[in-house]
Amino acid sequence: MRLDNFIVMRKRICILFIGLCLGTVVLMAQDVLSGVATAFRNGNSEALDKYMSNGVSLVLADEKAEITSRSNVEAAICRFFSTHPVKSFDINHKGKREESGFIVGTLQTSNGIYRVNCYLKKIENNYLIYQIRIDKTNE
After folding, report:
1. What are the distances in angstroms from CA 115 to CA 17, 75, 93, 126?
2. CATH number of 2-136
3. 1-5, 17-21, 98-102, 134-138: least confident range
4. What is the pTM of this model?
5. So where are the chain's domains?
6. What pLDDT was estimated at residue 77?
C-alpha cells in the first residue's frame, strides 16, 4: 500500500513540475508580447530594440529596402517614429506557442494608419523579434 502512495505522489510532483515549467514559458512569452506592444504604443524604438534578435528582417512602408542588422533596424524604426508620431497602437491579434509568438496590430500615427506584423521566436530561452513589417493601410 505504501509503494502505491509513493508512486501516486511521485506522478503528482512530476505533473506539477511540468505544469510550472510550461507556465513559466507562457508567461515569458506574454511579457515579451506586452513589452513589444508597449514599445509600439509609446513610439519607443529603444524599448523595442531589447526584444530584437541579432538578425531582424524589417520591411517599412516608406522604405523600399529590407533592413536586417539589429542596429540598422532600431535606427530605421527610430526615424519612422520621429517622422510618424504615434497616436495609438491597438493589438488586433496575438498568439504564442512554445517556440514562437506574433503580434498583429494597428498603429495610428499623425501621418496615417499602419498595420504592424511582428514575429518572434524562442532563442536561448528568450522570445526575440526576428521580423517586423509595417504597412500603410487604406483606412
Report:
1. 40, 20, 11, 25
2. 3.10.450.50
3. 17-21
4. 0.74
5. 2-136
6. 92
